[in-house]
Specification:
Structural class of chain A: mainly alpha
Shape of chain A: elongated
Number of helices of chain A: 33
Number of domains of chain B: 2
GO biological process, one term (chain A): monoatomic ion transport
Protein name (chain A): Putative monovalent cation/H+ antiporter subunit A
Distance between the termini of chain A: 81 Å
GO molecular function (chain A): antiporter activity
Radius of gyration of chain B: 23 Å
Order of helices and strands of chain B: HHEEHHHHHHHHHHHHHHHHHHHH
Keywords (chain A): Antiport, Cell membrane, Ion transport, Membrane, Transmembrane, Transmembrane helix, Transport
Oligomer: heterodimer
Largest sheet of chain A: 2 strands, antiparallel
Number of strands of chain B: 2
Shape of chain B: globular
Number of strands of chain A: 2
Helix content of chain A: over 70%
Strand order of the largest sheet of chain A: 1-2
Subcellular location (chain A): Cell membrane; Membrane
């Protein structure tokens, strides 16, 4: 393990520190705290930027320390191209989001708390992408789910927010458990606990019989987090969160954690039939479903949310396609998407904030009022649509390079990509054109350009998309190529540039654009067609989630009603049945039944008589018509047992038994008469038989096992010792007494405590009356003042 | 040995002739201290204004003694003191190993939190009728159970803690409480009686009650004696104590009825005594028989965890829901016992310590939450998040810890248990643990969204302003436990190391036996 690098630790800790100081800072500076708070992520950005030369030269940076040495868990990071670019996106876009939040939530009473949550998330996300150790990855992974839960439910007074927050927690929580299981399986089959070691063990992983299991479990984590169909439904619902959250967590960063995981797994898990089937199928489905659902929406944020779903599908599909350019295409698209989608969300927030609505049908003609936002939106739409001179164009070209091959599977996937890309093109331009161009529409608020804090983010990201494309050789050298190399597990160089090469990819781009324009012209009828289809289906995973949760609650109510009916007699019956099974089953299964004892030929007549009396008592209990007779008859049996103790030389025991029997009969009789029970037993015959069976089985079990135990020769060295030393050392002639007060005096001490505590418990039962005011004494308390007595 | 005068007896045949070293007294000190403090508190029963101060000071003292004990065991390994200086196995031996010391320490901290929390939670009537004496005597029983090296003596401490818990349970005499206490008393007495009967059989077979002595005799006796039935009987008795499926009825029937500080104490400590006894008797004394029963325990474990969490999901009353979550956690620990491997046992031990702290704290938090929102019912409470932010976040932390999510202490034992199950190919058990974690997440997320996030109903009766102020003692009691779960979530190393060593001590018992019989050749 490389040396402990203090600066990196600080960079990892900075967001958490920011989370601590944010509320105080906001209290003092109001929304202007954004300018100070943005320094935290900016410092992190700069810190990671310093790694760029080294990483782009092909080496990875590692460091950390032993976290839980006893469990072989380290806190260690592994920063290669993939981690580094993610870290830069998180801290870079994070900086812009901090600005944006200051403008968007200006004057909000809980702005400080909001910042805290955002920074907690940032810290978690940063940790996630640089984690080397499995468990560290898992810890940060779950932290992003928890912070996302808090952020989606930020507006906690609304039912929809709470529902969406819980839904996100449940879906991503399910994925988290799947991820944990997957990581533990990988740990088991490879013996390594670090991602940096895992990437070199591809052959071992792929050859393992548990490969498929590990793969499915890990993908379960990735697919829920990255909203792949059919787990996509939580993401559009997460739009209940304030817009900065949508822009940051639910488009640019957190939802890409799943894609990150898939890309990270690629060197070890990729290049198999399973990998190259599961990923394109799920990714492709998600792409189509997401883009179709996006067309149907009229809320700007929901349109964007569904295109995020489809974009994530595209990334997963490309990562798993397995051809030469496919992984690079996934990487380029991921970078492009982070920029244009982050910008788009912030712009949607600007429109909502300034015009008072984000329903696309109620917007129009904002370009003069909000010129900067308009320009940024057009830039984002160009990139999203894959048009030059923006970075989205490069990624689109690379996608078609990767997909286009002359086999049916490739052609099919190409068509999927064209449809998905085309539909996203439509949505992107709908958002960039419809609210801004055309006739000015009266909006709930009179629109102005958003304040500096709110346009600086989208403008920067939109410009970034342009610059990255224009200076693509440099950008590829430092950003794209290292990241692609990390994903594919071997050094690769990305060369795609704005200069178009005549060929199939360019042609496919043109096809996409033509398709998109056609759809755009008919977008309203497309929208109603999709809506009609969905109504006809009438069911979706979102509804399924509700059915699942309410079904679980109903199921658990039913189970609990059976398992916990609330009646003591049922509890007692089950308990004694368990006792009977516990005694009889092992005796039979493990062959521990006693040999039948021989008839005691030397039994004296008076001994037999006593046993006979016991049986008579027992018979009388059963035959008794009323309870009092039964109680007294029980006493007969007890006294007979006491006599047997006496006859066989245990006078102490015998006396105790006499006392206990007498007292039990008296107490039972007293209690029974006070309880106002019916005089006789009214159980139906069926229940009587059942109860009798349990009782007889328990009795038989205890007896049989006692016989079995007594058949083992008794080792009397303890009693021999007690007899030998009771008089000479402990000075007591009665061995039983000496055992009680000396040899085992500690037991007696405990029993004395029991008696004392019982007394106190009874006192409180007698004296304390329910519903009494504090400090009031019971009327039968000797210390109670006399005036309180009646 | 028919000597007429004691002067002619060779004492060294029967006793340790040298006085017990002072340092060895440490092993009985937690029990002695609690009994003494309990007695003093009982004598000063009517000075209700002094009860809390004396009780809290006594519990601080207990924690210091527990810490010293744990420190010594970590430094020097297990040690033994025999009562009355009789030679073992004739006198009662107290033997502490790492498992006992670790659990004693954790239970001491939980009791201290309860003592502090109880200062304002228990009114003067409750104090007059024995809250603090019951608490201290309960701790005498708990500590005695963790520290004794004698099976019958273990039973005695079980009785002490059972009757003390009964006293705490009925304190207040509300109708609901009496109903709960009746079920609690009946079902627990059956369990305790089974333990006694089993111990009678054990004595009949082994002729000894000393644990180390049993360890020595077991290999020979195993050839002939019917041990399986005995071990099954112990399994049932302790499973009842631990509230395992299908003999868990008493817990949901009673835990929501007493004062919340009492529920917290019970939820944290009592069921874990059953788990401890399973570890001590089944795992340590009868490992071969336990292995034979591994699949039975695994089925019980899965049943317990799933039934528990489903029960929690069904509840509308937070206190009842937490009661079912206690049961669900018992299933987790049983899973570790079912696996029986060092890693599984370590997971179970760590889970037990985590659960002692977290379950107590959750009851505390739910209690404060119910008070400030006016109801324990999910359908009627709400609005805690805006009015009591810190409480809401503390509760969320505890809930997530319960669900086994990072960065809280619940994560680690869950990971250890799942890994241990996967290591031996018990996929379904690992799956059951994960599904339980998932359902727990749904349960606690739902409770938090409904009771904390959701605003109170507009037509709800107005809250008493006096109830909105949370007493400082409640904050401290809840705070110290919450801090523990966060700290040990972030820095679990010491606890994981202790759990692993404690688990090893249960499997390789030579140092335990040697501390009782120094001359014995380890098996």
């Amino acid at each position: 393990m490389a040396a402990l690098d203090g600066m990196t630790i600080i960079a990892l800790g900075l967001p958490f520190i920011a989370a601590l100081v944010a509320p105080a800072l906001v209290r003092r500076l109001g929304h202007n705290a954004a300018w100070v708070l943005a320094l935290f992520p900016f410092f992190v950005f700069v810190r990671f930027l310093e790694f760029l030369p080294e990483v782009s030269a092909g080496s990875a940076i590692t460091g950390g320390f032993q976290w839980v040495p006893s469990y072989n868990v380290s806190f260690s990071w592994f920063i290669d191209g993939l981690s580094l670019i993610f870290a830069l996106l998180i801290s870079g876009i994070g900086t812009l989001i901090v600005f944006y939040t200051g403008g968007y939530l200006k004057g909000h009473a809980q702005l400080g708390r909001f910042y805290s949550f955002i920074f907690l998330f940032m810290g978690a996300m940063l940790g996630l992408v640089i984690s080397d150790s499995f468990l560290m990855l898992f810890v940060y992974w779950e932290l992003t789910s928890i912070t996302s839960f808090l952020l989606i439910g930020f507006d906690h007074g609304r039912e929809a927010s709470r529902r969406s927050a819980l839904q996100a927690l449940v879906v991503t929580g399910l994925g988290g458990l799947s991820l944990m299981a997957g990581l533990l399986v990988v740990w088991n089959i490879t013996g390594v606990t670090q991602l940096s070691l895992l990437v070199n063990l591809g052959d071992e992983v792929r050859a393992s019989p548990f490969y498929l299991m590990a793969l499915i479990l890990l993908l379960g984590g990735a697919f829920t987090k990255s909203a792949q169909f059919p787990f996509h439904f939580w993401l559009p619902n997460a739009m209940e969160a304030p817009t900065p959250v949508s822009a940051y967590l639910h488009s640019a960063t957190m939802v890409k954690a799943g894609v990150y995981l898939v890309m990270r797994m690629n060197p070890a898990f990729g290049d198999t039939v399973a990998w190259e089937t599961i990923l394109p199928v799920f990714g492709g489905t998600t792409l189509i479903v997401g883009s179709l659902l996006a067309i149907r929406q009229t809320d700007l944020k929901l349109m964007l949310a569904y295109t995020t779903v489809s974009s994530l599908g595209l990334m997963v599909m490309m990562t798993g396609f397995g051809s030469e350019h496919a992984a690079a295409a996934g990487v380029l698209y991921l970078i492009a998407h982070s920029m244009f989608k982050g910008a788009f969300f912030m712009l949607a927030g600007n429109i909502d904030h300034e015009a008072g609505t984000r329903d696309i049908t109620k917007l129009g003609g904002l370009r003069k009022l909000m010129p900067i936002s308009f320009l940024a939106a057009m830039a984002a739409a160009f990139s999203m649509g894959g048009l030059p001179p923006f970075f989205g164009f490069l990624s689109k070209e690379e996608i078609y390079y990767g997909l286009w091959h002359a086999d049916p599977w490739s052609i099919f996937m190409t068509v999927v990509a064209i449809v998905g890309n085309g539909l996203m093109f439509v949505v992107g331009f709908a958002i960039a054109i419809k609210p801004f161009l055309g006739r000015e529409v009266k909006t709930p608020k009179h629109a102005h350009e958003a304040p500096l804090l709110m346009w600086i983010g989208p403008a920067t990201l939109a410009t970034g998309g342009l610059l990255a494309a224009v200076f693509s050789p440099i950008f590829h050298q430092y950003v794209s190529s290292p990241m692609v190399s990390a994903v594919s597990g071997e050094a690769e160089e990305v060369t795609i540039s704005l200069v178009p090469h005549i060929g199939m990819p360019l042609l496919l781009s043109l096809v996409t654009i033509v398709f998109a324009v056609l759809v755009y012209l008919k977008v309203d009828s497309a929208r109603s067609a999709i809506a009609a289809t969905l109504t006809a289906i009438g069911w979706g995973p979102d509804k399924g989630f509700d059915q699942f949760v309410s079904g679980m609650v109903r199921l658990s109510r039913r189970v609990t009603k059976i398992a916990q009916p609330g009646q003591l007699d049922i509890y007692m019956t089950v308990t004694f049945a368990a006792v009977a099974v516990t005694l009889l089953a092992p005796m039979i299964i493990f062959d521990e039944l006693p040999a039948m004892p021989a008839w005691p030929a030397d039994a004296e007549i008076h001994e037999l008589a006593v046993i006979l009396i016991a049986f008579i008592g027992l018979g009388a209990v059963i035959a008794a018509k009323d309870r009092l007779t039964a109680i007294v008859s029980l006493g007969i049996q007890g006294f007979a047992v006491a006599l047997i103790f006496m006859l066989f030389g245990a006078p102490d025991l015998s006396f105790t038994q006499f006392m206990v029997e007498t007292l039990s009969v008296v107490i039972l009789a007293l209690v029974m008469t006070r309880l106002r029970l019916t005089l006789s037993d009214h159980r139906p015959t069926g229940q009587k038989i059942g109860d009798a069976t349990v009782a007889i089985a328990c009795g038989a079990g205890f007896m049989l096992y006692l016989l079995a135990v007594t058949e083992v020769p008794f080792r009397s060295y303890l009693s021999d010792f007690f007899i030998a030393y009771s008089k000479v050392i402990a000075h007591g002639a009665n061995v039983v007494n000496v055992i009680i007060v000396d040899f085992r005096g500690t037991d007696t001490l405990g029993e004395i405590a029991v008696v004392m505590v019982t007394g106190l418990a009874i006192l409180s039962l007698i004296r304390v009356r329910p519903g009494w005011k504090p400090g009031m004494l019971a009327e039968n308390d000797p210390d109670a003042p006399t005036e309180e007595k009646k | 040995m028919a000597a007429t005068s004691s002067h002619s007896v060779d004492l060294s045949q029967a006793m340790n002739v040298d006085p017990t070293p002072l340092a060895d007294w440490l092993v009985v000190m937690p029990v002695v201290w609690c009994l003494l403090a309990g007695a003093i508190l009982l004598m000063l029963r009517k000075r209700t204004e002094l009860q809390a101060s004396i009780g809290i000071v006594a519990l601080v003292g207990l924690c210091l003694l527990d810490a010293a004990l744990l420190w010594r065991v970590l430094e020097e390994g297990p040690f033994t003191m025999v009562m009355g200086r009789w030679l073992p196995p004739f006198g009662i031996a107290f033997t502490v190993d790492l498992l006992g010391a670790f659990f004693t320490m954790t239970s001491g901290l939980v009791a201290l939190a309860a003592g502090i929390f109880g200062r304002d939670d228990v009114d003067s009537t409750g104090r007059r009728y024995g809250f603090y004496p019951f608490l201290l005597l309960l701790m005498a029983g708990v500590s005695g159970a963790f520290l004794t090296g004698d099976v019958f003596n273990l039973y005695v401490w079980f009785e002490v803690l059972l009757i003390s818990s009964f006293g705490l349970l009925v304190l207040g005499s509300e109708r609901e409480q009496i109903d709960g206490a009746t079920k609690y008393a009946f079902l627990n007495l059956v369990g305790t009686t089974l333990f006694l009967v089993a111990t009678g059989y054990l004595y009949g077979l082994f002729g000894t009650l000393n644990m180390a002595d049993i360890l020595i005799k077991a290999p020979e006796l195993r050839q002939t004696a019917p041990l399986m039935t005995l071990v099954c009987l112990y399994l049932l008795a302790f499973a009842m104590k631990a509230a395992a499926f299908p003999v868990n009825f008493w817990l949901p029937a009673s835990y929501h009825t007493p004062k919340l500080v009492v529920s917290g104490l019970f939820g944290g400590l009592l069921t874990k005594i059953g788990i401890y006894a399973l570890l001590r008797v089944l795992v340590m004394l009868f490992p071969i028989e336990r292995a034979e029963l591994g699949w039975v325990i695994a089925v019980l474990a899965a049943g317990t965890m799933l039934l528990g969490v489903l029960g929690a999901l069904a509840q509308n009353d937070t206190r009842r829901a937490v009661g079912f979550l206690v049961i669900s956690g018992i299933g987790m620990m049983l899973a570790g016992i079912a696996l029986g491997s060092p890693s599984g046992l370590a997971g179970a031990i760590l889970y037990a310590a985590h659960s002692m702290v977290v379950m107590t704290a959750i009851y505390f938090a739910a209690g404060i939450g119910g008070r400030v929102s006016g109801s324990f019912l999910l359908s009627r409470s709400g609005g805690i998040y805006p009015s009591h932010l810190v409480l809401a976040f503390a509760t969320l932390a505890l809930f997530l810890s319960m669900a086994g999510l990072p960065p809280f202490s619940g994560l680690w034992p869950k990971v250890m248990l799942v890994k241990a199950a996967l290591d031996v190919g018990e996929w379904w058990l690992a799956g059951a643990i994960l599904v339980t974690g998932f359902l727990t997440t749904i349960t606690v997320g739902r409770i938090w969204a409904l009771a904390y996030w959701k605003p109170r109903a507009a037509d709800a009766e107005p809250l008493d302003p006096a109830s909105q102020k949370v007493p400082m003692t409640s904050v401290i009691g809840l705070g110290m436990l919450t801090v523990l779960t966060v700290v040990f979530g972030l820095w679990p190393e010491p606890l994981i190391a202790i759990s692993q060593d404690a688990a090893r001590g249960l499997i390789d018992t030579s140092s335990f036996v040697l501390s009782v019989f120094p001359g014995e050749v380890p098996q």
